[in-house]
Design a protein that fits this description.
5-stranded antiparallel β-sheet, two-stranded parallel ribbon, 7 strands, alpha+beta, 12 helices
Length: 380
């Protein structure tokens, strides 16, 4: 069946490649909907006691009671600053209540507790934190030496999310750079290494996008055992991408090492792709199904965070192995033909020669044996 699939992909590459690429890009584009933040106990399953306690507090005191926003004020001689902050916060929309400033014994530090109308994981609470930091606090402390800090669970997770988003381009560039260098050394092709890097990113974005559609937007949410939507935890993307990258590169190396072996031993690229899929495809599919099943089992966990990791990684791994490695990449190499093995001469000279299957002038032992068996036997 895997061999037949390889022949089908090769024979219809000019149709398979654009269709599969369009589907992958469409799913990956849903990553733009993902919002990183702090999913509190209100997003846990209702059977957990922490969720029931959360709901009771939200019902009795308002949803914002579960995540107050403390504003810590370093007075620095301006003892009126905490009261100024309180008065300005009271006029803000989305604020349920503001407590009176609480001073320490020396009256050098004060805390103003702000209770929002929205729950800690709601986007409105994030916007309230931004207004407090950008408008209210600077205006209240202007003209004095007081310094105020907006703290709390929502603010902390928002800061972490901002740092992750800010550093994500550097993280991805590093990963792509390592992929380009290592795979270029292994396969002596900048096309193969660049394809591996880009397709791994696409698989990761598909996983993140599907996770956002389910956990954040609520599509098919009941299948995960959750009943309340919420943002994606800030630490999920970097950890999940590191795991996905390692597994994805395994599948790419499995497939491309076999294709390169066939190509080095004399087959043209189109034939090498077909032979490579038929020879190693079962290993890739079996490995992906095993890992996908393992990660999907995390969805059965009672806690929200393992469910997120399980759903994200299961979708990303199965997409990467079954759709990207077994369909998109072979179709792309078939369309490129011999150009798939292009590498600039300067880069070829610069990189160490540690290829998985080095080219050689002599033919393979199998082919030599076949030729010898056809030679006439007898005296010459």
């Amino acid at each position: 069946m895997i061999a037949r699939w390889g022949r089908l992909v090769k024979a219809n590459a000019k149709f398979v490649f654009p269709v599969v690429l369009l589907v992958i890009v469409a799913l990956a584009s849903t990553t733009t909907l993902v919002r990183l933040g702090a999913a509190d106990q209100g997003t846990q399953p209702k059977k957990q006691t922490s969720r029931r306690a959360y709901d009771l507090l939200a019902e009795g005191f308002g949803p914002g009671f579960n995540g107050p926003i403390p504003i810590v004020v370093d007075v620095n001689g301006d003892k009126q600053a905490p009261q100024k902050i309180r008065e300005r916060v009271q006029r803000l929309p989305g604020v349920a209540s503001v407590g009176k400033p609480q001073f320490n014994d020396e009256r050098t530090v004060a805390i103003v507790f702000v209770t929002p109308e929205s729950a800690p994981q709601d986007e409105e609470t994030d916007k309230l934190v931004d207004r407090l930091r950008n408008d209210v606090v600077p205006a209240a402390t202007a003209g004095g030496d007081a310094v105020a800090y907006v703290s709390g669970q929502t603010a902390a997770f928002k800061d972490i999310a901002d740092q992750i988003i800010e550093r994500m381009p550097y993280f991805l560039l590093y990963i792509i750079g390592v992929t380009l260098i290592v795979l270029a050394m292994a396969f002596r092709s900048i096309v193969v290494s660049a394809t591996a890097a880009v397709t791994t990113l696409l698989s990761a974005f598909v996983g993140f996008g599907v996770l956002g559609l389910v956990v954040q937007e609520g599509h098919l949410l009941g299948l995960t055992g959750l009943d309340q939507t919420g943002p994606i935890e800030t630490f999920v993307p970097p950890i999940a991408f590191a795991i996905l990258f390692g597994l994805s590169m395994d599948y790419m190396v499995f497939l491309m090492s076999r294709i390169r072996e066939e190509h080095v031993h004399g087959l043209r690229t189109r034939a090498a792709v077909e032979h490579g899929i038929s020879a190693i495809g079962r290993v890739v599919v079996a490995a992906a199904l095993i890992m996908g099943t393992v990660f999907a089992a995390f969805i059965l966990s009672a806690d929200r965070i393992p469910k997120e990791f399980g759903l994200l990684l299961a979708v990303a791994i199965l997409t990467d192995a079954l759709i990207v490695r077994m369909t998109l990449v072979p179709a792309f190499l078939t369309l490129l033909g011999e150009r798939s093995w292009y590498i600039p001469r300067w880069l070829d000279r610069l990189l160490p020669n540690i290829t998985i299957e080095s080219p050689h002038e002599s033919e393979s032992p199998l082919r030599i044996d076949v030729e010898r068996s056809t030679e006439p036997v007898g005296p010459h």
